[in-house]
Amino acid sequence: LTAEGAIITGCNVENASFGLTVCAERTAVQRAVAEGHRQFTAIAVTCDVKESFVGPCGACRQVLMEFGSDWTVYLTKLDGSYKETHLSELLPFAFSPAHLTKN
């Protein structure tokens, strides 16, 4: 969800070389940036795992952090249940763009 209220979707793009797989969270952010959005308020992550809620992988968490730590993250299941958390809770002590400007 962009700061302007636009809903941008992404999808997981599998690759036989697992390191080249791109997660849905990153494709959504890349699509949003390509469409001119750079400020976000929330993201919903859905997975077909029934037993537990699944969060973004570490790489996705870092990419999201590039656009701010105050994202609301909705971890959702296919049955409609969800858990609300925040990116700062999923990636504590994060390295962010702000660290690059400090001396």
What does this structure look like?
- This protein is of the alpha+beta class and about 100 residues long.
- It has a single domain (about 20-100), classed as Cytidine Deaminase, domain 2, CATH 3.40.140.
- About 25% of the residues lie in helices and about 15% in strands.
- It is built from four helices and three strands; from the N terminus they run H-E-H-E-E-H-H.
- The chain has helices at about 25-35, 60-65, 85-90, 95-100; strands spanning about 40-45, 70-75, 80-85.
- A three-stranded mixed sheet has the order 1-2-3.
- Strand 1, helix 2 and strand 2 form a beta-alpha-beta unit.
- The model has no long low-confidence stretch (mean pLDDT about 95).
List the helices and strands and how they pair.
Elements: H1 24-34, E1 42-47, H2 58-65, E2 72-77, E3 82-86, H3 87-90, H4 97-100
Parallel strand pairs: 1-2
Antiparallel strand pairs: 2-3
